[in-house]
Amino acid sequence: MQNREKNSQLIKDAARKLGFDFCGIAKAEFLEAEAPKLESWLNNNYHGKMAYMANHFDKRLDPRKLVDDAQSVISLIYNYYPPNRLPEGREDLKIAKYAYGKDYHFVIKDKLKDLLSLLREEIGEINGRVFVDSAPVMERQWAQKAGLGWTGKNSLLLNQHKGSFFFLAELIIDLPLHYDTPVTKDYCGTCTRCIDACPTDAILQPNLLDASKCISYLTIELKEEIPSEFKGKMENWAFGCDICQDVCPWNRFSKPHQEPEFLPHPELKSLDWEEMTKETFDRVFKKSALKRSKWEGLQRTIKFIRSSLS
User: Fold this and answer.
1) Residue 310: what pLDDT?
2) Tell me: the pLDDT tens digits for 203-230?
3) Residues in the annotated binding site for cob(II)alamin
4) If you write DSSP's letter for every residue of 41-97 in order, what string do you get?
5) Nearest Cα residue to 59 out of 135, 170, 156
6) Which residue, 15, 39, 169, 265, has most beta carbons within 10 Å?
7) CA atoms lying within 13 Å on the CB side of residue 288
């Protein structure tokens, strides 16, 4: 037991040195309470056209199916709250704050690989895998079990010290550790600001999101034309959406990140979104999360927003 506590502290100290704001650890086991919730969410088609969400149902619920003999799920928080907001373009077009800089998948995955390498050097042979929003891992549920926060009414993880403008990442390993106490209290209380502010009514009830109505889904995940029912409701978001986070009282505790890779591309501050060519898009967003929508998808969204204003 003493070794478990020593190794756990070693992991948390190493994570902090790599720039992670918080690190918590939970026992790798089947998420029994989440199974019926996930099944119901999928059966109601709240995942929209995100067919991949229905894949690997068992793996989403059991990390031991992702890593042989998994014993521990290490959850980490990495802040992305920008020092300054981007100036909004013509017609006030906006992009989500997480997409200002370099694609977080690359930045954080490299840090996780460094963390795993360091643990192998200090502790010995460890079998494990790193995850950054790229595999069937229920990251918010694991972060809550690891004591990093609670699930807000907007279905995002909230942390009392950081709000919600952060990325979640996981390291699943076959090493038994000292496990943190899950957060079981809902600190949102009676607040419904996120529900009230959502222009597309995507938050059906506390902690139940119809992703197919979410602006982030409509501008990133949906590859087809945006349904006409959302005309006049996009609030000029061209990529992603921060509305439910911007209105959340807990985000008054958000502090600017210290990650140079997350600073905006120099051209981003003066970019004319509507006149941007594909060549400009490919150059400016070569290493950006905006690549996900592609130039064609971004133009589709801008055209839809324009048609809503006419």
Assistant:
1) 57
2) 999 999 999 999 999 999 999 999 999 9
3) 60, 133, 151, 154, 157, 168, 216, 241-242
4) HHHTTTTTT-GGGGS-HHHHH-GGGTSTT--EEEEEEEE---SSPPPP-GGG-EE-G
5) 135
6) 169
7) 26
Say what angle helices 104-123 and 2-17 make with each other, to 10 degrees.
140
Read off the amino acid at residue 249: P
**Strands (DSSP E) along 152-256, which ranges?**
157-158, 166-173, 203-205, 208-209, 237-239
Where is the binding site for [4Fe-4S] cluster, in residues?
188, 191, 194, 198, 214, 241, 244, 248
Q: What is the mean pLDDT of the chain?
A: 94
pLDDT in tens, 127-152: 999 999 878 999 999 999 999 999 99
Q: Which helix (H) or strand (E) holds 24?
A: strand 22-27
**Among this protein's residues, is 133 annotated catalytic?**
yes
Q: In 211-272, at which residue ranges do the beta strands (DSSP E only) sit?
A: 237-239
Among the listed residues 62, 110, 114, 133, the single catalytic one is 133
CA distance 269 to 272: 9
